[in-house]
Amino acid sequence: MLSHIKPEPIDEGRVLQERNVFQPMGTSSSKVKPEPDAAEAMLGETMNLVDEKPIVSRSATNTPSVGSKENKDQVPVAPSAPQYDKYTSPEEITYNPEAALKTGLGIVGVIKEKIRLLDIGNQMRKDVWKKELDELSAHSTPTTLIAICGATGAGKSSVINAVLDDTIVPTSGMRACTAVVTEIAYKPGRSIEGDVSFLSREEWKAELQILLEDLHDENGKVKAPTDMKSEAGVAWSKVHAVYPQIPLDFLVTLTADQIIARDPGIERTLGTTRKISAANSKEFGKAIAPFIDSKEKKRGKAHDEKTSKKNDKAEGPALWPLIRIVKVRCPAKALESGAVLVDLPGTADANAARSSIAQGYMQRCQCVWILAPVTRAVDDKTAKDLLGKAFKTQLMMDGNYDTSTVTFVATKTDDISCNEIITALRLEDDPELLEIEDKIRQYRRDENEKRKAKEQADAEGKKLGQAFREKRAIVLEYKEWIRALKDDKDFEPTLTATKKAKGSQPQKTESGKKRKSSGESPKAKRRKSNRDADDEDDPDLDGFVVDDHDSDSDSDIMSDVESVVSKVTASDKDSDDERSENGDDDVVEDMVEEDEESEEEVTVESLKAKQTIAEDEAREIKEKLEATKNTARDALKQLDKLETRLAKAQRQKNGFCAKARNEYSRDSLKEDWRAGVREMDQEAAMQKDPDNFDPSFEARDYAAINLPTFTVSSRDYIRLTKQVEGDGKPTCFSDTKDTQIPDLQAWCHSLTISSRERTARSFLQKLKTFAAAVESYLDDMNNVSEVDRAQLRKRWASDYEDPSKHSRGEQNAQTYDPYDFGFNLDRYLAEYGEGFEPQAQTPQEPAPANPGGVAPVLKRKFTELVDEAVYNLHDIFKAGLEEKLKIGSATAYAMAYETSMNFGNSMHWSTFRAHLRRDGVFRRDLNAELCLPLTSSIAKSWGEVFEQDLFAEFGRQTTLAIEKVIEEIKDSAAPGLAERCNVQGNLATEDAETALKAMIQVVHEALQKEQKEISRSLSPHVQEQLRDVYIRAMEERGRGSVARQKDVVNRGVQDSRGDMFAGGSNILMSKLTLAAETVGKALDASLSELARKVEVLMSVLWEDINTTTEQMVIRSAAVEVMAEISQQIQFWIRAEESRRKQGTLV
């Protein structure tokens, strides 16, 4: 399947500079290939600039035009510096298509400089060379359109952002991102640019009318949009977003025109395009958000009516429902080689303009990516079911069903359940998985051990902390007791009260009993205060106080043990209170009585000895406490490490399971795709000859069909590359390669290789033949006598020819009109064709002075060959398709009523009504489903017709005609011209073959494009036939209206099926006939140019040249330059051939 790639427009300034080489001021500029929707504006702008002030190339400044009188006496200017890199051999060249184009364009500039100085007397040569130079200058890197298709939730936006390595497409629930076509192309530099185009007034009016109908129920009453996913909810969200000030009850009383008129600002926006430019994706997101962001998510879920109205008034209308198409240009590496991603929405759109844009892109795109979550792609649906029969049928008609045109991308591979995958794929005994699971089990065992160790250390720390607290209190009490003895003051010990201090008087209660002094007494409080003071002042106790911020402590790891130590002082009071509450007074009292009996005297020396013992014990406890704290801290650190290792091992397990599922999914999807191809082939074979159908017959090598399939995790890729800040860690994959996003990026790049290679190869070949033609023109012909020249000139020279005399197109103009059905192949050739002007733009030429000249003779022969080619196309179309269309029409006719009935019974009544309001197209397409039996019948035959080389015989016969004329020229030449005739004849043959090959390629691609449009015209025809039926059905209201609506549609389908299918088949054949006739006219126009080109090449044999000194110097310099140029071109051609043989082209 051949697919033409439209190159990007070349720099406008360069076109303006170069156009003066042969073009007089005020004439049309050279043809450039701009974007289709901007072509007219750009061309007009270029012509205006040229008319105001013609711009010449740098080297041509102050130099007269070619062929002017002033130029004949002009002193030759020094040659300018080369505009391309020179090499001494093909091996020095690092070949790639872009480098070849860049070098070639530089060579074209040099050739222009040299030709500009020549005095070319022959007007035909001037015109032919100017045209060839313009065509060569217009070459640029081609683009490859890739359609991204997928249902809601397929992860299209995330995959696109991952492929682009930047957050270009908004993903956070922005409604317009999935409602309109978004085209993403490459631009150099760092900035990001975007164009947001809005619906026209008529397009928005048409959508408003449908949305207003969606807000009514079957009885004509206003629906309450409680379910925002329903038709009424979607309609209200759109209208209310644009016109937030209009309440629902008032909105439904207005017409679409009245609604539009209520906001002049919105009305002025309709039909316009807003341009956005930002330094980076973050700024671009902010800039584009006001156009595409839905207000609902800003306002939140909880807001009352007053708050909503207040927000509406503050924020104003939203623009996302009005967007027609968004075009973004960004410096994404994956798009650098010419790929253009086109994010296509679903079909459930009330706006016909957006649906038409999406369908147009599907027709134009060279590649289609189908996205679906991996679980749905494998578990719920197979590849052959996921795409739908209508889609597969269209692919087969386009000739793309078994090629790399379709790529399947299974998304969300990080969404995984290991146990389910292990069971389903029987991975239990896999050595790699067993090793991973052993690590996980070991880490968990280690984790449990460390957790127990930490718990034990925490418990031991609590005990040691309590013991240390008590021992410290005893030390402090000894110190206070010693001080009291030294000061001869009363002191009543609480913790060490085994003996009575000197001069102490035990306190008594009202009953006369001795009792322990509580901490509530004034003395006790005073003593406690003194104790604290001693604690602060005495350096001997510093070693016993555990600092919460030890020098080796980790501030973020505070164990339970540390917490206990940090609260020592506060716990002292708790211990005293606990003793009091537990009734320990009696115990203390008994102890005091026993002490009194012993009557042992307490001294300072005895207390210091006891203090020393207590201090040693406290120090020992503290050391144990510090060791326990370190044990707990080490356990916590080990737990953190184990947690990290366990997470890594679990990620390895997830990744292993994901990879296993991915491999299984890819194999399964590819096999399902092959099965789908086999089913389509078998259906076609059975319909073609049911009596001899053999199910075991293999129509093709199905094993060789290899559906490009990728299983990707955009989420893990984005996390691994840190594309979004704060997005967390990956859940499955540790290496970006395992996410397959890098593979998808490389695939995106590789899809452009064939078109880039083909463009560069064709460009080099054209440049080679043109350089050879110029070089032959400059060759010395002085040794040929003027008599011999005159003889050939009289026989073969001609002037411009009036094409109306021999134009096949005008003879048949009344019979065939290519514009009746909207087909304009001439416009396509003007826009996409390389080297061919559409016939409508070809100027009328005067009749040739010599009808027997080269060009007139070839034109007459070419006309005969074109007629024959057109008739052959008619025969091919009729033989290959006419009978299949009859069979398919009969099948569709028989199944129409059942198809219509099943369609209506398969959906909710409100959804059925939504289809009626949209002429059968909403979430499904009734018109396409009615056509499916017909299109399925002809799909394979249709594809086969257009897969064959339709112009092979025409090309051979055209080449023979050219060779015959060249031989006649040789035969008529004098002996002195024989050798030069051979040289020019070979050159003319090679040049003609190159031009003819390119011409046939363009015409073939144009026909392929047109056949795609024709093959899609059946459904619109059925829709037009049923339009009145849909309108009548919508008029049914009230009780039982849904049943009556279905009946109206079913009966309407039954009554119209003859015109729908038989008439549709006739239309298809008529359009194919018109396409063949238009191809003939395009060939006529192109071959007319080819005839003149052949004459220009051969006219070197008889053409006079300017032999003034100045011109001879110029020609001599040009000969040297052209020889070098020819060598450089040959080097590049050989470098390309060498790389192609090695398979290293990128």
What features would you describe in this structure?
The protein is mainly α and 1146 residues long. Helix content is 60%, strand content 5%. It has a 9-stranded mixed beta sheet, with helices on both faces. The two termini are 21 Å apart. Residues 1-80, 173-177, 296-308, 499-598, 800-829 and 831-842 have low confidence and may be disordered.
Percent of residues in β-strands: under 5%
Q: Strand order, main sheet: write it out.
A: 4-3-5-2-6-1-7-8-9
Biggest sheet features: 9 strands, mixed
| Residue share in helix | 55-70%
Oligomer: single chain
Number of helices in the DSSP assignment:
40
The counted number of beta strands is 9
Radius of gyration over all CA atoms, rounded: 45 Å
Class derived from helix and strand content: mainly alpha
Distance N to C terminus: 21 Å
Mean pLDDT: 77
The low-pLDDT segments are 1-80, 173-177, 296-308, 499-598, 800-829, 831-842
Name the overall outline: extended
Topology of this structure?
Layout: H1 12-18, H2 39-52, H3 69-72, H4 97-117, H5 123-137, E1 144-150, H6 156-164, E2 181-186, E3 192-198, H7 201-214, H8 231-242, H9 248-251, H10 256-261, H11 264-269, E4 273-278, H12 281-292, H13 296-299, H14 305-315, E5 323-330, E6 339-343, H15 352-364, E7 367-373, H16 374-380, H17 383-386, H18 389-398, E8 406-411, H19 418-425, H20 431-486, H21 522-537, H22 560-566, H23 568-581, H24 585-598, H25 604-688, E9 709-711, H26 714-720, H27 741-750, H28 753-778, H29 786-796, H30 808-811, H31 825-832, H32 854-905, H33 909-917, H34 926-947, H35 952-972, H36 978-1015, H37 1018-1025, H38 1027-1034, H39 1041-1098, H40 1109-1142
Parallel strand pairs: 1-6, 1-7, 2-5, 7-8, 8-9
Antiparallel strand pairs: 2-6, 3-4, 3-5
